[in-house]
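To whoever is on call:

I kicked off a structure prediction for a single chain this morning and the downstream step that reads the tokens threw a length-mismatch warning. I double-checked the sequence; it's 459 residues and nothing unusual in it as far as I can see. Pasting both halves so you can look.
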Amino acid sequence: MSNTVNGRDPPIVPPPTAALAKAHRLPRLDLICLALVACPAAYFAVHSLLFAASVTGSLPLGDAYTFYIFHYFRFVDGTYSFWHLFDTHNDHLILTTRLVLFADAVWFHASGKFALVVTYLLALAIALTLAHLAATPRKWQVAALAVIFLGLGCARIQLQDLTTPFQVGFFFVHAFALATLIALWRGLAGQRWWYALAFACDFVTVFSLGSGVLIGAAAVALAMWLRKFDRLFALFLVFHAGLVGLVAWMLAGAGRLEVSLPPGWTDLVTFFLVFLGDFVQAWPGWVMPVGTLVAATGCGLLVWVTWRSLRSRAEPGGQADVLAAMVLFLLLEAAIATIARARFSWVEALELRYTNSTLLLVVTLCALAWRLFPQAVSRVAALVALTAVLFASNNVVFENDWRQQHEKMDAIAAAIAKGAIPSGAAATLFTSPAMLEAVIWRYQALGLGPFAHPGGEAR
């Protein structure tokens, strides 16, 4: 057979040069940026843990006083019932939080160390899971993203949630909501035993925080995007509806199920956008624009995932659908917080305890974008956003403010050890003078928190 083309020999293609071969081996720009962003994120995560460990063991804060009066002291007196664990707290059921507080008080003398370990382990689990959903099967990308996500999950702006044992419920509800969605995804894929895990995680989600009931809406959306539905999923929805009904009955019995008219739409929108942008509150002028960008990005990605699922005949990617369902859960959580709290003031949207939800929303949005858009330019854009949020939420101002708070608490503890409650102590500890008076002397007598012996034994 002749190798000529139109009577001429075919052109000779030269072998690739060494420079060209080397260029093909060079990592993409997005992967270089990924490695660069992971370095400061690792520092922030380790620094956060070391700082948090240094400020635990101080006096209780805020709602923790109700735990000691209505739960722990009754337990010590022998009048506590197992069913009291399911008592309502405001408009929440906080079973998991109470279990952590009991373990910390009984075995660690309310030092806060056990709650600290649980909180950081939950933050680590969330970061690893989101990174796995975003980048699997590329293991080193999973590792780098997990470090970045952990740097945000343990950011300085979250030190109030990370170091206050009573706030562990935020981490429980988000970790188990994510676990519920993953279990449902696997169950709908035909691995039926995952449904048992979905039922268990749904129970823990609902009994960790009031927003846990919203996981049902995210589950329905997940099934829609996956375009799958079976009898066990229907049974899950019935089970979840039963939990929602039980929660409503318990809240109504405690007089906590209140239906109040929300303020005007302007106030609602303002609160919602400020809530979503609260992690840049060190620069107040950026809060509303950033909140608007987060809301628009979230809604846009959810529309994209829906359109992608409806138009595609191929099996949709499950990881992206799970991430999208988690985004929906977090947006609904922000919406419910807006309806419940907007009647007070939009300033309340800037409370640091809410940054756990908003930072997790940003992380989940970036994880979803990483999964949906593999192009280098898209991933570099996601990394730029993550970097900006990483440094904004790790502003040293938040650490300094929390250090000053704990210095004040240590001074109050020292005064109480001498037999006097300083003036203004209740305001510093976010409680009422009557509540502080009712708790603190017995707290001291039991050798809890800063009043434990150096060896760790209660008095």
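Update from on-call: the warning came from a stale cache, not from the record. Cleared it. Sanity check on the structure: The chain has 19 helices and two strands.
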